[in-house]
Design a protein that fits this description.
It is a single chain. The protein is 60% helix and 11% strand. It is of the alpha/beta class and 246 residues long. The protein folds into 2 domains: 27-130, Arc Repressor Mutant, subunit A, CATH 1.10.10.10; 131-245, 3-Layer(aba) Sandwich (Oxidized Rhodanese, domain 1). The strands form 2 sheets. A 4-stranded parallel beta sheet has the order 5-4-6-7. A 3-stranded antiparallel beta sheet has the order 1-3-2. Helix 11 links the parallel strand 6 (202-205) and strand 7 (228-231). The N and C termini lie far apart (87 Å). Residues 1-20 have low confidence and may be disordered.
Length: 246
């Protein structure tokens, strides 16, 4: 009898431990449902924001605005190990910022929606407009030797008279590019100079303001005797501007 009593006592204790928080939650919901509603929504938003609360995860998201990529491709482009890349991608997936598809033996990551791309671009614009640190870094990058820059407005105005060069990887060019642009990835540029005109202005673009590759490519070209300008804006920036003008 004493043994059965102890079992029943333990069961009662277990029930209280498990269900007491639920009872409190239910009572709180009944007392003030609006507070509970608000808290749950903000908790959901906090889960999403956790995904972008890392410079490395922001870099991955910015990269995926260009094209869907495998873990191996993201690792190569960001310089992170496969293991570290996978951990960041899992956080992004848990935060509902990326989705996956299987292609053979590879897992391909993509942005969960076009709104995620808009979110990342908005965040970049806010940073550029409100953070003096970002402005200083960008200005320094634009004033390195043998780099000339051009604004998006000027580049579009001169498009018909210029040679437009896209130095992103081939998969990103295939996904989306400016009409009329020619693709030579940056790591192939030095060996492909014969494909470029020396009697025409060259405008170089890459992934946008957070990518230094357009400046690097312009520097290589100018030192080789070309007339090259760096456009530190993305394909999406170009297309947005074109829609506004239309």
């Amino acid at each position: 009898m004493r043994y059965l009593f102890l079992i029943e006592l333990n069961m009662l204790y277990f029930i209280l431990v498990v269900f007491k928080p639920l009872l409190k939650w239910e009572a709180r919901s009944l007392e003030n449902p609006s507070v509970n509603y608000k808290d749950e929504l903000y908790n959901s938003l906090a889960q999403l924001s956790r995904g972008i609360a890392s410079n490395r995860r922001l870099e991955i998201l910015d990269l995926l605005t260009q094209a869907s990529k495998s873990v191996e491709e993201i690792s190569k482009e960001t310089g992170m190990s496969i293991a570290n890349t996978s951990r960041h991608l899992q956080v992004l997936k848990d935060s509902h910022l990326v989705k996956t598809t299987r292609l053979g033996n590879r897992i391909i990551y993509r942005l969960a929606s076009s709104q995620i791309s808009d979110l990342i671009r908005l965040l970049i614009n806010v940073g550029e407009n409100s953070m003096s640190e970002m402005q200083h870094i960008e200005q320094q990058a634009d004033h390195i030797p043998d780099v000339k820059t051009v604004s998006l407005t000027e580049a579009q105005r001169m498009q018909k008279e210029t040679f437009l060069l896209d130095v992103r990887p081939q998969d990103e060019f295939a996904e989306n590019h400016v009409d009329g642009a020619i693709n030579i990835p940056l790591d192939q540029l030095s060996d492909s100079l014969s494909r470029l005109p020396k009697d025409q202005r060259i405008i170089v673009y890459c992934r946008g303001r957070l990518c230094v590759n357009a400046n690097s490519a312009a520097q290589i070209l100018n030192r080789a005797g070309f007339d090259a300008y760096s456009l530190n804006r993305s394909v999406l920036d170009w297309q947005d501007m074109s829609q506004i003008e239309d």
